[in-house]
Design a protein that fits this description.
It is built from one helix and no strands. It is an all-alpha fold and about 170 residues long. It is rod-shaped. InterPro entries: GOLIM4. Keywords: Coiled coil. One of its GO terms (cellular component) is Golgi membrane. This is GOLI4 protein.
Length: about 170
């Protein structure tokens, strides 16, 4: 009975030692599990924070993308408006250029016509001048001849007058 009692006590001690060992292992595992839970809890909080930041970043990006798209559309519209205005202005200036070019051609033709007319008028005037000069020279020559003849006639008339006067004096 004692042997049995002693053997059972030995078994109880072994069992208590084993229980103590398991209890320590359980406490160690509990501590490790607690660390793992805390670590998991921190990771979940960090993940939630990251998700929140990701969501905020995504929202900010969408807002930025929308604003950028609106700005791009506005810039595109402004560019199209400027292009339209410049295109219209280009057409107007092109038409004005064509009009000025046409006016220049008309003025050049008019200038050439006036130049030709001036040349003809100058030639006509030169011819008239030469003709008038010739007529003047001819008239001057005729007048000089007439003056010469009149002088000769005057001399003859003086002589005749002198003779008549002499004859009258002689008759008296």
């Amino acid at each position: 009975g004692v042997f049995m009692y002693s053997h059972l006590q030995q078994k109880v001690r072994n069992a208590e030692a084993l229980a103590q060992k398991y209890k320590q292992q359980q406490e160690a595992l509990s501590a490790q599990l607690q660390v793992v839970y805390e670590h998991r809890s921190r990771l979940e909080r960090s993940l939630q924070k990251e998700r929140g930041e990701h969501k905020k970043t995504k929202e900010d990006f969408l807002v930025y993308k929308l604003e950028a798209q609106e700005a791009l559309n506005k810039e595109k519209q402004d560019s199209m408006n400027r292009y339209g205005a410049l295109s219209s202005q280009h057409k107007i200036l092109k038409n004005q250029h064509e009009d000025v070019k046409k006016q220049l051609l008309d003025l050049q033709l008019q200038h050439n016509s006036l130049k030709l007319e001036h040349r003809k008028t100058l030639e006509t005037h030169s011819q008239k001048y030469a003709q008038l000069q010739q007529e003047k020279d001819s008239e001057v020559t005729n007048l000089q001849d007439t003056v010469f003849k009149l002088r000769e006639e005057s001399k003859l008339l003086r002589k005749a007058h002198q003779e008549v006067h002499s004859q009258l004096l002689n008759a008296q």
